[in-house]
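Human: Not sure, check this?
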Amino acid sequence: MLRKFGWFDSLSLIFALSEEEKLMLYFGKRLLSVSFMIGVLFALNVNASVTYIGIDKTTQGDWVGKYGKDGAVIFCNKSAHGADLSIPYVPSEAEKLFIKGLIQEISITDSTGKAYGYIWNATPGDDKKCSLLVDKSSRIAACVSGRGWADLTISLKVNSTNYKVSIYCLDYDKVRVPGQDTYGYQGDKLPDKFDINIGDHTNGVYISWEVTGQEPFKYFAKKVGATVNIVTSAVFVDEIKTTSNVDPASKLLETWGKIKQNY
């Protein structure tokens, strides 16, 4: 009669193995673990990509309803005016400058270290180029910037594997006409070529990228010519819905959990 092979039988077999066989079994399991984790890391990176979408020169500060459905950060907090930004940056919900949504963390630095915040006008009235607050009650003309002529980097962690990031840049005091070269990427290496030079942004422009994978998205802005400094006024996140939005790493981790149950 056949009977189910249980844990007691497995234990008996293990005790019956020679020392060499036990060692082979041990390293075999370790190799399986390492191979699986390599597979997880590969799955995280093989699907990671950043694709430049385009530039929007018409929406200006009226972003509500068009951008930021799944997260919005309007710069900058009153406490950040003229001051170094904390790392990571902590947006202010109390000042109606933040919709958390899928945003997990945002860090802002310049090429010399910490970036800083600046408020040009806290009460610009209905000046269309100034960003609306999240409740549309008023607007603000403000930014984050690099010290002096330093380049600016914004790193964004998002709880999604397929989303759009849009950066709003406003040259409120009209001194940055040559614009700035902008890059969207993942990882540690800056791409060889920028995505777009935004040129004149005295009326405000949005630059957007589609991002896939779990690698944080990075935005890099580089000074061009006699531009005084780099400025960025807001960041927006919109998840991209797909018919099969399955995270391969999650599937692998689920499979690994089932494998471990059998050891």
In short: The longest helix spans residues 19-46. Confidence is low (pLDDT under 50) at residues 1-11, 31-45, 251-256. DSSP finds three helices and 16 strands in the chain. The longest strand covers residues 49-56.
